[in-house]
Amino acid sequence: MEKIKAAVIGTGGMGHGHAESYQALGERVELAAACDIDGDKAAWFAREFGIPHVYTDYNEMMAKEHLDCVSVTTWNAAHKGAAIAALRGGANVICEKPMAMNAEEAEEMKRAADESGKLLQVGFVRRFGHDADTIRALAAAGVMGDIYYAKANYLRRDGCPGGWFGDKAYSGGGPLIDLGVHVIDLSRYLAGNPKPVCAYGVTYNNLGCNRAAGGEKCWNPPRDRKNYAYSVEDFASALVTFENGFTLQVEASFNLNIPHDVRTIQLFGTKAGAKVEGGVELYTDMAGMFINAQPQGDTCFGFDQGLRDEIRNFVDASQGLAECRATAEDGLVLMKILDAIYESARIGRSVEIR
Ligand SMILES: NC(=O)c1ccc[n+]([C@@H]2O[C@H](COP(=O)([O-])OP(=O)(O)OC[C@H]3O[C@@H](n4cnc5c(N)ncnc54)[C@H](O)[C@@H]3O)[C@@H](O)[C@H]2O)c1
Fold first, then answer.
1. Same CATH topology for 4-123 and 127-301+334-352?
2. Cα 256 from chain centroid?
3. Three-state DSSP string of 181-212
4. Does domain 127-301+334-352 have CATH number 3.30.360.10?
5. Where are the domains of the chain?
6. Rounded distance from Cα 79 to ligand 1 centre (Å)
7. Helix orientation angle between 39-49 and 13-23, rounded to the nearest 10 degrees
8. Candidate of 38, 73, 178, 219 to mutate for ligand 1, largest count of ligand atoms within 8 Å of Cβ
């Protein structure tokens, strides 16, 4: 099989993660080019990964390189343009989550993928955790029964990443689009990818950015010296209903008055419930007794492992060796859910999802 030529657009934190995951595939993949609007950053990235060609414009990169696979790891506002350019330039694309700023952009990206006949995968890394594999296996074996309700939390006490993440013009929103997207998608994936029908949501911006450090602390300090606004919500909560009767309650925060950060998904089925929190626990009843069970082995989500398996799935799917496990359609459905929650929070009523 021919060696895959890959490139990364956006050479920041996630760009590094994608490049390392391509390198983990050894001889199968050649990292051929890197692109960032910050030329110094792209050059430094290229030196680190031994990448021969560096660009500051993804259109120029797509015109000059013959690429099979492209990772889009820019800030969210650039996902659409970069992904469409790469698809039209003949490459398969994996685009980081959230797929886009909103469903309209996601729709355009999906259309570009359909028209080009190329693959557009979305970076839902949580689908590749051992915790997700464990629940999917239990659900497929009928252990859970029908999963009819889920509660998903991704709550940080003091954790806006800073920089562009807090600026709606670059991010599209706060913890809902940044963190909530992970647990909404994972809950939906574990429940068998049902179609959403309605959302009721609330958002708040009461606490400001990194209040304990007077707004100074952030783990994504802007190198580019841009004066980013802090214009996103601190906290979002929503109830989302689905066509098959499944309901999801979700909460996500950058800032919230809680004792410690929380990242939990609870699933409730007709035969068993499960909790995903640093591993998997199962709750059921047998012979008139309540039973709590812990599957043995590694049932945890590990970020590096998840990302490596995600990139392997992307490369395999690009070569027709596997089915893509996080499709453009999944990304679009998620953007529709997020749009509906934000719109519901704005108008104070529930919003239908079509
Ligand atoms: N899967 C996950 O768990 C996970 C974790 C963190 C971030 N992310 C996502 O990954 C993406 C990147 O996040 P990050 O933390 O790496 O951000 P980052 O700020 O470290 O890197 C983003 C880079 O994109 C570059 N860029 C912006 N517009 C560009 C354009 N038009 N062309 C080329 N480069 C451009 C910026 O200069 C910057 O270097 C975001 O969409 C974020 O939501 C996903």
1. no
2. 22
3. HHHHHHHHHHCCCCCEEEEEEEEECCCCCCHH
4. yes
5. 4-123, 127-301+334-352
6. 9
7. 20
8. 73
Per-residue pLDDT of the chain (354 residues; tens, 9 = 90+): 789 999 999 999 999 999 999 999 999 999 999 999 999 999 999 999 999 999 999 999 999 999 999 999 999 999 999 999 999 999 999 999 999 999 999 999 999 999 999 999 999 999 999 999 999 999 999 999 999 999 999 999 988 888 899 999 999 999 999 999 999 999 999 999 999 999 999 999 998 776 666 555 566 666 676 788 889 999 999 999 999 999 999 999 999 999 999 999 999 999 999 999 999 999 999 999 999 999 999 999 999 999 999 999 999 999 999 999 999 999 999 999 999 999 999 999 999 999
Give residue 131's identity as a one-letter amino acid code: D
Q: With a threshold of 0.70, does the pTM exceed it?
A: yes
For residue 126, give the DSSP letter: G
Q: Tokens 């969210």 label which residue?
A: 76
- Helix, coil or strand: residue 72: strand
Beta bridge mates, 324? none
Residue 313 in tokens:
């799935």
Q: How far is CA 83 from CA 38, 77, 115, 127, 177, in A?
A: 18, 11, 13, 21, 19
What DSSP designation does 323 have? Answer: -
Q: Give the CATH fold of the 4-123 domain.
A: Rossmann fold (3.40.50)
Pocket of ligand 1 (CB under 6 A): 9-15, 35-38, 41, 58, 73-76, 78, 82, 96-97, 123, 125, 178, 220
3-state secondary structure of 121: strand
